Amino acid sequence: MRIGVVGFGARAAGVINHVFREASTEFKIVALVDPDKEKAKSRLLESDKDASFYDSLDKMLKSAKLDALFIGTRCNLHSPYAIEAAKYDIPLFLEKPVSVTMEQAMALEKAYQKSRCKVLVSFPLRVSPICVRAREMIAGAAIGEPNHVHAVNYVPYGVGYFEGAYRNYEVTQGLFLQKATHDLDYIMFLMGSRIKRIAAIWSLGKVFGGKKPSKLHCSVCGEQKTCLESPENRKRNFSGGTETDHPCPFSKAAGNPKDGMNEDSSSSIFEFESGAHGVYSQVFYTRREGERGAKVSGYKGSVSFDWYSSELKLIEHHAPFTNVLRPPSGMSHFGGDIELARNFLAMIKDNAKPMANIWDGIQSAYTCLAAKESASTGKFVKVRMANKH
After folding, report:
1. At the N or C end, where does the chain have fewer CB atoms within 10 A?
2. Are 193 and 276 in contact (CB under 8 A)?
3. What percent of the chain shows pLDDT beyond 90?
4. pLDDT digits (tens, 9 = 90+) for 74-117
5. Does residue 38 come out as left (phi exceeding 0), alpha (psi in the -120 to 50 range) or beta?
6. Measuring CA to CA, which residue among 104, 89, 76, 110 is closest to residue 7?
7. 125-207+259-329+357-382 topology per CATH
8. Pairing mode, strands 28-33 and 52-53
9. What is the predicted pLDDT for the residue at 389?
10. Degrees, nearest 5: CA angle 344-345-350
11. pLDDT at 388 (0 to 100)
12. Which value, to the nearest 10 degrees, does the dihedral of the CA atoms of residues 172, 174, 176, 182 take?
């Protein structure tokens, strides 16, 4: 299967070289669009070294005779390339977030109204075994009507959003779009209903960011002995993150609250179209023992799970039973990446439907954009609804 790739960075290389190849050895990269050709070449497997490079997506799609397309660029370029791809009848694997601005999301929605391009959005959490089983329990009336959800994400590697490429706010547009796009998507999947209005709040610059020089690295900093983020102290304290020389997470390069930056933490409360409501919080300065999961409650029972502990629990409210299931642990994105790869393979070979389609991606983007607006204005915000006309 001949794959064309737009943006062959670390994430794209990890997915295609490892996860896709686990799903099928038939995947082969034959064409790429990437401005950094040398770095892209270095990420190719030996079997893909003969891949051709193109200056544009159009040229690649018209010349390379592709079976499928993968868009793995930086976040702010997902929409422009996906809009270009909408003109073609080809299976597309699109990284999230599908859009980082309202203008992008609306343009993407318009582009796919009559498109024959079948899109699988990279939402591995909703297709992970633990989330799929939780949804089956909820849809099967194990808890009655789902009336409330409480979800959390205590990110043990969150410092990376303040010392690497992801701290570039112009590209990421914040961690609602970069991170919560996953979580709000799986929450809507679990509840079987879209979020129609949302209120959010965030903490900016309370932990990370600051006034250190933008290009400061630990190796030239005079505070290595006392700074908790120095490689030496990270190793000593088992606090995670890069344990070699790295950019300072307390520098001006991380942005500032006035001009824009990733949040240290953020929370939201929201109402679904079904009338249920829920809350979600994400925290980016926690270390080691992360938590990521949700508890969905109905009158008859509650379903809860945590991906890090790999545990799914069904509590029956009106019977003396609690059932605990434990799926395998240690899989990429909790087993969701391989499920996406298998689904993409089926889309190419058997014309299967995507497990997370372009409309799911756009709806998640609209929800995250509404959360951003709410956090900025202090008001509840109605979420725009993505609709295929």
Report:
1. C
2. yes
3. 96
4. 999 999 999 999 999 999 999 999 999 999 999 999 999 999 99
5. alpha
6. 76
7. Dihydrodipicolinate Reductase; domain 2 (3.30.360)
8. parallel
9. 61
10. 105
11. 76
12. 30
CB 213 within 8 A of CB 181: no
pLDDT bin (cut points 50, 70, 90) of residue 330 is confident
- Predicted local distance difference test score (pLDDT) of residue 255: 96
Q: Is 313 exposed, middle or buried (0-12, 13-18, 19+ CB in 10 A)?
A: middle
Cis preceding linkage at 97, omega within 30: yes
pLDDT bracket for residue 331 (50, 70, 90): confident
Residue with tokens 């008001």: 379
Global confidence as pTM: 0.96
Question: What residue segments make up the domains of the chain, in order of their start?
Answer: 2-123, 125-207+259-329+357-382, 218-247
Calpha distance 131→146 (Å, rounded): 15
Longest dimension (CA), the chain: 64
Kindly report the CATH class assigned to 2-123: alpha beta
Q: How far is CA 164 from the centre of its chain?
A: 17
Sorted by sequence, the CB contacts under 8 Å of residue 320 that are 6+ apart come out as: none
Check: CB of residue 111 under 8 Å from CB of residue 386: no
pLDDT digits (tens, 9 = 90+) for 120-145: 999 999 999 999 999 999 999 999 99
User: Phi/psi zone of residue 173: left (φ > 0), alpha (ψ -120 to 50 degrees), beta?
Assistant: left
Hey, what long-range contacts does 211-214 have (CB within 8 A, 24 or more apart)? 211/250, 211/251, 211/252, 212/248, 212/250, 212/251, 212/252, 213/248, 213/251, 213/252, 214/251, 214/252, 214/253
